[in-house]
Design brief:
Length: about 190
Amino acid sequence: MGQLEILLIAVGLSMDAFAVSLGASASGRARDGRAAFRLSFHFGLFQFLMPVLGWRMGVSVAALVASVDHWLAFALLLLVGARMIRAGLRPEVQPHRKDPTRGWTLVMLSVATSVDAFAVGLSLAMLAGPIWYPAVVIGMVAGSLTFVGVRMGSHLGMRLGPWMEVAGGVVLIAVGVRIVVAHLGS
């Protein structure tokens, strides 16, 4: 997997974090620098850790599925991408009374926005790809886009958040298609 694909995956995975940070900022619950730092740090950290955990799990089963690994990677990316698209097209408004940048709320948001990265880690293991460079890129992109989301949120409002999630889902599906096409072409 090349650097462009890794970057596209990182951007696609970061759309959940971007949408959450955009919404938190647009609602007025996370507009200051401290809130931006907390969200950016935690979302970036979890986006880094989850692919590593998925990869570790996937390495143990990679030899068993080597003949269909490209199809499994495609299926995982398709599933994650479709879920992101569906969530973006049907956003559920859930008012948060607590500060989303503190305590268990922050931890739960961090996990929720990074579960997709776990599936990508599984995919990378099945493709016998390295994990550290992609995980670092995914974490850095997620942290950066979270920070940008907090800053943009007060200006753009919540109407853009769901469309970012749709775009991220489309990117993940496109990367999955490219993996299958590249494997079938070789």
